[in-house]
């Protein structure tokens, strides 16, 4: 069993976490934290080396150094937190592309570092998120442009992912859109740009995979090797998510570990003669980390393996949790905002689960048959340990759970391993072997991915009751469930003491009771809401969605980002397409109880000759010209609605007209979803 004495880095790491949280939540200037670092360091040195002759001063020095670490975390986060040199508006500026977040068919989403702004003074670069409509853009390119800086979108619907808050953790507060004809691009002229090298390397890898691997499997191969899921179809992403193997498509410590072990086996024959060769796998692992974008999970794994190899080289052994804390601490010192990164949280908790739960879980069942123990029970214990440790975070962020996760993870481990090695071999042989042989390697990878990976997962996905989706878990439940897992692990170490198992089950029961109570409370009334969605009118009646369109399922698929959180928030499993009792509708009008909704999406003269049409909520569409005098004559409405279906130009025009006429309106673009009282 782990003891705190074995993990001396636990307290400093917790101190660093507390410091980062203080830096985020406290509105204190960074200079105050800098002064506190100096003060606590001096006090620690004075109490440690001063001639006070009492052991309590040694304890005081330890507390002082711990508080200095807390101050370091707070200073590192707060130093850039409040730097906002611009407000919303139109600017002419010079910027550099720092990193490409994702590429779509017609634009790239990038981090843009603004270096200078015309008629504005900025102390140092200011980072924003931008959609750049230029397919050839690369990190390191300098851009001269004029565009509108606007705030990042907040969560507009119940349960929707809060983009504004997510980027605020990273000190990013604005976004902009750049069309290719509105910018002048200057390519990078320097000797080396790290992100540019990563992007070009990744681009080359993708081109090799697409050239030699058949199309049906190429997207999955590049996702497994590079973590790039842009080309994976929505249907297959759904399968991977609901079967609990999505982690395989996000390059993580598992991928790094598999590649590292493969290289160790490959180099074993020459290791005894040239021991320095043990550092070659480390070099290759770091190259792999950079090519895949140097995500927090990959960096953590690369750092841990590096520390293990260096330690063994100098005959030093350390508890693996210490290595995990060192690697995590180094990452957070340089990038403190990663504390809120989903990948960092999942990777860190998975590794803690392996170190804390795997060994006692293996000892619960003793299997004499070696091959069963090595190839079935050990991987199963590893999978269960990692899944248990990440379960609270998975519920909190994604709301999905596969009841057959153990089976699916056992199924994919072999094809995943072969695919990783095969893809690396293909990248090497593409430069030295004839094209025909590389096509054969690509064909083999296609068969492995299709029949060893996709087909079994699709079958498991099709099984009724194989997964649960749209699970809602509040943050307090994440803490409670994490404590339950901790006490469950404690029981595994002391299996004869049933009180720890009872404590764990009691905490799980509290979490389940909290969710059940919430469901009863929120479902006692019909939920009727005008939701915000992209280019569509959407009114939700419980889990029935009226869109005013012939194909509501297409609207739902295109707006999953805006709409899926609503299902989780109110505890629905999925949208229903059968019209509930008490609802009347057509493509233009919806009537629910005593409330009526009307989509005005055509010129007024095309509507009924009758004036004074009574409606509660009049939803304005794009295909009409708004003349307020005629509108007031044609309709008698209680509320007028501007929703996400409106183009921004139409929205701006309607907004100005309504403001000028002093007519109140519901604006989902600004205020989010509107709850309608029945």
Describe this structure in words.
The chain is built from 22 helices and 18 strands. It has helices at residues 10-25, 30-49, 55-78, 163-168, 194-212, 215-226, 234-242, 253-271, 279-291, 296-313, 320-334, 342-364, 370-397, 405-429, 435-462, 475-493, 498-522, 552-558, 560-570, 628-634, 648-660, 668-671, and strands at residues 89-103, 108-117, 126-133, 142-151, 174-179, 183-186, 401-402, 467-468, 528-531, 538-541, 544-546, 583-585, 589-592, 595-600, 613-620, 635-642, 666-667, 674-675. β12 (583-585) and β13 (589-592) form a beta hairpin. The protein is globular and about 95 Å long. The termini are far apart. The model has no long low-confidence stretch (mean pLDDT 83).
What attributes characterize this protein structure?
5-stranded mixed beta barrel; 18 strands; 22 helices; alpha+beta; 15% strand; 678 residues
Radius of gyration: 29 Å
Beta content: 5-15%
Q: Main sheet?
A: 6 strands, mixed
Spatial ordering of strands, largest sheet: 12-13-14-15-16-17
Total of DSSP H or I helical runs spanning 4+ residues: 22
Brief write-up:
The protein has 678 residues and is α+β, with helices and mostly antiparallel strands. Helices cover 53% and strands 15% of the residues.
SSE arrangement:
Blueprint: H1 10-25, H2 30-49, H3 55-78, E1 89-103, E2 108-117, E3 126-133, E4 142-151, H4 163-168, E5 174-179, E6 183-186, H5 194-212, H6 215-226, H7 234-242, H8 253-271, H9 279-291, H10 296-313, H11 320-334, H12 342-364, H13 370-397, E7 401-402, H14 405-429, H15 435-462, E8 467-468, H16 475-493, H17 498-522, E9 528-531, E10 538-541, E11 544-546, H18 552-558, H19 560-570, E12 583-585, E13 589-592, E14 595-600, E15 613-620, H20 628-634, E16 635-642, H21 648-660, E17 666-667, H22 668-671, E18 674-675
Parallel strand pairs: 3-5, 14-15, 15-16, 16-17
Antiparallel strand pairs: 1-2, 1-4, 2-3, 4-5, 4-6, 7-8, 9-10, 9-18, 10-11, 12-13, 13-14
């Amino acid at each position: 069993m782990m003891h705190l004495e074995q993990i001396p880095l636990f307290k400093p790491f917790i101190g660093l976490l507390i410091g980062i949280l203080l830096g985020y939540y406290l509105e204190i200037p960074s200079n105050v934290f800098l002064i506190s670092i100096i003060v606590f360091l001096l006090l620690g040195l004075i109490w440690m080396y001063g001639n006070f002759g009492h052991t309590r001063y040694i304890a005081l020095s330890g507390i002082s150094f711990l508080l200095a670490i807390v101050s370091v975390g707070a200073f590192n986060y707060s130093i850039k937190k409040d730097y906002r040199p611009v407000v919303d508006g139109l600017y002419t500026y010079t910027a550099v592309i720092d990193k490409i977040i994702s590429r779509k068919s017609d634009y790239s989403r990038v981090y843009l570092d603004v270096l200078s702004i015309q008629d504005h003074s900025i102390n140092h670069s200011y980072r924003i998120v931008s959609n750049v409509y230029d397919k050839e853009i690369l990190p390191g390119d300098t851009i001269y442009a004029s565009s509108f800086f606007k705030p990042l979108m907040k969560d507009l619907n119940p349960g929707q992912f809060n983009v504004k808050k997510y980027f605020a953790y990273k000190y990013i507060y604005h976004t902009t859109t750049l069309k290719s004809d509105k910018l002048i691009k200057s390519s990078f002229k320097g000797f080396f740009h790290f992100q540019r090298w990563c992007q070009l390397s990744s681009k080359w890898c993708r081109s090799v995979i697409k050239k030699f691997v058949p199309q049906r499997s190429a997207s999955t191969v590049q996702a497994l090797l590079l973590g790039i899921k842009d080309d994976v179809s929505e249907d297959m992403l759904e399968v991977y998510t609901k079967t609990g193997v999505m982690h395989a498509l996000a390059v993580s410590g598992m991928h790094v570990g598999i590649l590292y072990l493969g290289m160790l086996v490959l180099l074993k024959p020459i290791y005894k003669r040239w021991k320095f060769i043990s550092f070659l796998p480390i070099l290759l692992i770091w190259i792999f980390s950079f090519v895949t974008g140097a995500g927090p999970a990959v960096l953590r794994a690369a750092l841990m393996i590096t520390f293990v190899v260096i330690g063994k080289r100098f005959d030093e052994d350390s508890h693996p949790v210490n290595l995990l804390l060192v690697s995590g601490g180094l990452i957070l010192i340089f990038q403190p905002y990663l504390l809120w990164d989903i990948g960092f949280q999942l990777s860190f908790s998975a590794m803690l689960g392996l170190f804390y739960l795997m060994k006692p879980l293996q000892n619960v069942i003793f299997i004499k048959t070696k091959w069963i123990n090595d190839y079935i029970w050990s991987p199963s214990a590893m999978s269960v340990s990692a899944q248990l440790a990440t379960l609270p975070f998975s519920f909190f962020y994604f709301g999905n759970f596969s009841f057959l996760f153990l089976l699916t993870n056992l199924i994919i481990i072999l094809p995943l391993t072969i695919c990783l090695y095969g893809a690396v071999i293909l990248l090497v042989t593409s430069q030295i072997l004839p094209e025909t042989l590389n096509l054969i390697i690509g064909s083999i990878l296609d068969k492995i991915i299709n029949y060893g990976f996709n087909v079994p997962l699709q079958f498991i996905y099709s099984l009724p009751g194989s997964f649960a989706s749209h699970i809602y878990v509040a943050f307090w439940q994440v803490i409670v469930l994490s404590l339950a897992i901790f006490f469950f692990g404690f029981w595994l170490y002391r299996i004869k003491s049933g009180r720890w198992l009872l404590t764990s089950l009691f905490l799980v029961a509290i979490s389940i009771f909290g969710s059940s109570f919430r469901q009863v409370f929120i479902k006692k009334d019909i939920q009727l809401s005008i939701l915000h969605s992209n280019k569509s009118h959407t009114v939700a009646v419980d889990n029935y969605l009226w869109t005013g369109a012939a194909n509501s399922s297409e609207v739902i698929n295109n707006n999953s980002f805006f709409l899926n959180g609503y299902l989780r928030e109110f505890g629905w499993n999925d949208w229903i397409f059968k019209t509930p009792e008490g609802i009347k509708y057509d493509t233009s009008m919806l009537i629910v109880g005593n409330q009526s909704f009307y989509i005005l999406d055509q010129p007024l003269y095309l509507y009924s000759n009758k004036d004074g049409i009574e409606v509660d909520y009049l939803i304005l569409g794009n295909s009409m010209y708004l003349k307020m005098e005629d509108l007031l004559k044609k309709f008698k409405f209680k509320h007028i609605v501007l929703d996400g279906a409106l183009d921004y130009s139409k929205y701006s025009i309607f907004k100005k007209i309504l403001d000028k006429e002093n007519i109140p309106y519901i604006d989902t673009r600004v205020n989010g979803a509107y709850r309608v009282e029945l």
